[in-house]
Amino acid sequence: MFLNPTISNLSAEVFRLSNRLLATCDALVSDIGLSSARLQVLEVMALSSVPQSVAQIARKLQLTRQAVQRLANEMASDGFVRFESIPHHRKAKVVLFTAEGRVGYANAVQRLEPLATKLGLELTLKEVKAATSVLKAIRHRLESEARDVMKT
After folding, report:
1. What's the pTM?
2. pLDDT tens for each residue of 21-61
3. How far, in Å, CA of 108 to CA of 22, rounded?
4. How many domains would you assign to the chain?
């Protein structure tokens, strides 16, 4: 993918890890009407102290607003979320949990927690923090590059 074999190997491993994480998550939560994509949206909502709009969720996930809107619409149809108008704003709405959505999210977290614990058993906290730091630094560089490309 890249001429630098070290970065190419890292990139390939990140892609494989991402694919495996998504597939494993999908398998663990599909029977409760969720998917890894839906769970990511619900997680942004759960971790936020204030209600989020589709656009805000999309920015946090670095996805398009349209992709998140599609997921939110599907989850609303399935009873996991609902939309509420934002005062003083004509079009935008916030996405809120329904009771069923809170239960579904809690069930998903309960199913995924043992996996997270198991994955971390052979890693030290220092190793996990270092890996997180490296991946975050690479993401920030990519974001900076993307901004530079868009300026030209």
Report:
1. 0.85
2. 999 999 999 999 999 999 999 999 999 999 999 999 999 99
3. 13
4. 2
